[in-house]
Amino acid sequence: MPLAFGVMGGIVLGLGVWWGGLVLLAGALFAVLDSRAVLALLALAGGGLGFGSERLNAARPDRLAPWVGAQVTLKGEWDGQFLRLSDPPARVAVSPKPRVLPGQMVVSGRLVRPEGRRVPGGFDQAAWLRGQGGLFVPTPTTVLVAARVRSSTPEGGGRGWFRRGLTAGLGERQAALMQATELGDRNDIGREDFAEGYSVRDAFARSGLSHLMALSGQNVALLTGAVIWLLAWLRVPLGWRYAGALLFLAPYLLLVGVSPSIFRAVLMGGAVLLGYALGRGRLDPYAVIALAAVACLLPFPLWLLDVGFQLSFLAVLGLTLSARVAERLPARWPPALRLALVATLLAELATLPVIAGTFGQLPLVGLPANLIAGALMAALVPLGFVAGLLGPFAVAVNWLTGLLASLLLGVVEVFGQAPVLTWGTVGAAGFVASGVAALAGVLWLLGRVRAPVALGTLLACAVLTLLPGLLRPARELVFLDVGQGDSTLIRARGLNVLVDGGGSVGSDFDVGTRTVVPALRALGVRSLNLVVATHADTDHIEGLSGVLRAVPVGELWIGQRKTDDPVLNELLTVAREQGVPVREVRRGDRVSRDGVTLTVLWPRGNVWSTEDNDNSVALTVESHGFRAALLGDLPNPAEAQVGVGDLDLLKAAHHGSRYSTGEAILKESTPHDVLISVGRNTYGHPHPDVLKRIGASGAQVWRTDRLGTVRWPLP
């Protein structure tokens, strides 16, 4: 354990973060408290190893740097996640992800650098890719965007044989599930839907069963248990049974590939099996966990920042307390039931802060869902592995595999409809509070503190983390980076208003569900008083359908009620299904709360243009002398008639189009700042003429394509 803490501290110090020294010091303190002060040197040695590993990893050359920004055609081995090149030796992420089976692939596109987190709660692609490499595995440093597959050849060999066995004779959804549970390949399952707006992946997350699609200790335990049972049935001597299960782990790791959770499970399982094979008996669990952490982090130092690594180790740390907690349950309950209940609950509690902070929601039905799904997985995982070994001949057993897979999907579909507890971003103080509360619980289990003290500590930590938000709620305008589109959140005490929800023209990417909703959760927005759909353009309102399905909404405001626009019709249909009242607003309509007033300036509603942009809902936001205007896509003639008055902040209409943000409105409003919501596009937004006009007015320009999400405080 001193060595593990030293390695972690050294990696953090290598990343330039000062508190890595505290982690290293904690390792030395463990040695001192264990009355073996000499082992503090082990923590220092671990610190040097961790620091050196991180620095070596950071110093590896970027083989594809000369081609960044260029149009290229690449040929390599596609593993479902990355394209592996042989010359130069590198790995490349591909976007959009090709809908082809793993194997040889030729693909063309443009190489770009990965993006960081652009919206609260959004995916930090750059950080994630940095964690996918190590000392012996190239780190993906580029993304091939606008990718087009030129040719592909499915993989052969043992892995190709195994994949054919997993899918032989199964339906698409069943086959997708088997590839996820047996190979960790979630590409196909991520494209499946139970219903419109209800994806299979979201159902797994809402039911607390996402871990079933990530290979982990459960897979290793079930498969090694099956191997041991088979060897026992064949009457193999006890020691050789464990040795046989140990020999199974290496080819299994080669089959499924290296990831944090499966590598951790294989290392720990291997250590335990080796101990039994040598007759050494049960190993110390914390020593084995520490050993696995060291073995994972030295070759892959940035796994320390990987959510999968964190969840895997936190869950197994929670499980080490299973026996003590199970003893406190009624003795008349069957031991297997007690352990199953306790293990599920402890794993959920141990991973709670990471899951809440990363995914913005906590499942409320995880305990019953996991108990039922766990029983199904106990049969499905070994049976699926047998099917994989049989290859194309697996149709002989896949009738049963398909039945179990359908039952598991049914469990996910039912429990995935249960409500979830939404959660905002967890900061440093939140993680410290979670750690203190967890420590109090562990000390109570160990008999070191009394129950009232542990409970009081838990309540104190909860109150201290709740107080800041209650005493000083957010007051701000949040201009979400939704790419080439618009989405603005207005926040004050008792008032949450979303103006537009972005959209993805010519793509099936759901901006509302994948970008806007996670951002709302990360910001702690659990409901919306109003949602405003400014006009019937895809890049403004397509994402609102996903928002209405995921977040309680008080009222939907629209301008012109068009009857022939499919995107607007879809939004109105969802509003009707969710019971959201729809209001057609006109100039003068307003809402006011906590000193913040929203006023509709446009449309007047007496005459409608044939151009959607002319009919955009335009709003002003006023708060204690501060004034801002949101103009949708109004063009020059219309925006000059709105009468915005003097402004502090102007949100440029139509993403900086040359036909908006004219001299007239700039002269009338004299804004100090102009916000342009824009993304990568072929329209020439923002137009140089617009930027020139804004510059001439003396206003400062803020662009979401360069800055990401912009958060503007309200007085």
Automatic annotation (TrEMBL):
One Pfam family linked to the record: Competence
Residue intervals of the Metallo-beta-lactamase domain: 484-680
Localization: Cell membrane
Membrane spanning residue stretches: 7-31, 212-232, 252-278, 285-303, 309-327, 339-359, 371-390, 397-415, 421-446, 453-471
Superkingdom: Bacteria
Stored SUPFAM superfamilies: Metallo-hydrolase/oxidoreductase
Keywords: Cell membrane, Membrane, Transmembrane, Transmembrane helix
SMART domains on file: Lactamase_B (SM00849)
Predominant subcellular localization, coarse grouping: membrane
InterPro entries: ComA-like_MBL, ComEC_N, Competence_ComEC/Rec2, Competence_DNA_uptake, Metallo-B-lactamas, RibonucZ/Hydroxyglut_hydro
Protein topology in the membrane: Multi-pass membrane protein
Record has Hydrolase as a keyword: no
Annotated NCBIfam families: ComEC_N-term (TIGR00360), ComEC_Rec2 (TIGR00361)
Protein name: Competence protein ComEC
The species this protein was found in: Deinococcus metallilatus
